[in-house]
Amino acid sequence: MKTELESDRDYSQQIAQTIRDAIVAGDLPVDGRLPSEAELAARFNVSRPTVREALKRLAAQNLIRTQRGATGGAFVNRLSFEQAQEHMVTTATLLLSMNRVDFETAVEARFALERACLPLACTRRTPSHLASLRAEIARQATAGLTDEEFCASDVAFHRALVEAAGNPVLSWHMAGAVEAMQPLMNMITYTARSRAQIVALHARLTYALAEGGLEDCYATMDALAAYTLELGGEIRARRQAKGRAGQGADP
């Protein structure tokens, strides 16, 4: 590992990056034990608290894990797709909120990405995948379901659709699109949407998937995207009308 540090940059960040690069390159193997804090401090010529901060950065990224006891220490973590998905969702949520991505842009990206899953889902979906989709449809049609519960089921439905593609790398990439963007869309459109219409589209999409009808899947996904954009436009019009009414009111 490179041990020379630049004096004008944060030492703990540089150490974390150096160790990360070694993990990615395979120089530090999965489940391998890292040198002790004292050894790393000596190698990088820094204090142990600086090394400790670097290790905290790596642990926050799930790149290492720590164990206590005589056989303890810091070890290279075996990162799972599930753990990576959690980071993807968090990152996507922060990006959308911090950069104020407009509704239409989010919808465009969200459905274009999910549409790309359909060819694989049509050929690889299993009875279990279809059962998951149908279970969410039944849940969405339940009387008395709260908006939060309907939103959660909506996300679960689309997550199951992505999983039907049978590709863990694709599922990882799609985690942010489904689990970050879908709740955002629901939060904006829930007051205007027709649950019955969404349930009907979900049922139509599931039927097409079960039959392996890719063109029908595309058409239904496009109809769902168009309906979502329509809802967004309706909400915007309502807000604009309310704003104009407020401006015209007496002070």
Can you walk me through this structure?
This protein is mainly alpha-helical and 251 residues long. It folds into 2 domains: 11-76, Arc Repressor Mutant, subunit A (Orthogonal Bundle); 82-227, GntR ligand-binding domain-like (Four Helix Bundle (Hemerythrin (Met), subunit A)), CATH 1.20.120.530. Helix content is 72%, strand content 3%. It has 11 helices and 2 strands. Strands 1-2 form a two-stranded antiparallel sheet. A hairpin with a 5-residue loop joins strand 1 (64-67) and strand 2. Helix 2 crosses helix 3 (48-60) and helix 5 (103-115) runs antiparallel to helix 11 (214-248).
The CATH architecture of the largest domain is Up-down Bundle
Strands of the largest sheet, in order across it? 1-2
Quaternary arrangement of the chains shown?
single chain
- The CATH topology of the largest domain corresponds to Four Helix Bundle (Hemerythrin (Met), subunit A)
Percent helix, as a range, is over 70%
Total separate domains: 2
Mean pLDDT: 88
Total DSSP helices: 11
Summarize the structure.
This protein has 251 residues and is mostly helical. The mean pLDDT is 88.
Q: How is the topology of this model organized?
A:
Elements: H1 11-25, H2 37-44, H3 48-60, E1 64-67, E2 73-76, H4 81-99, H5 103-115, H6 118-124, H7 127-140, H8 147-163, H9 168-189, H10 195-211, H11 214-248
Antiparallel strand pairs: 1-2
Features:
251 residues, mainly alpha, Arc Repressor Mutant, subunit A, Four Helix Bundle (Hemerythrin (Met), subunit A), two-stranded antiparallel sheet, 11 helices
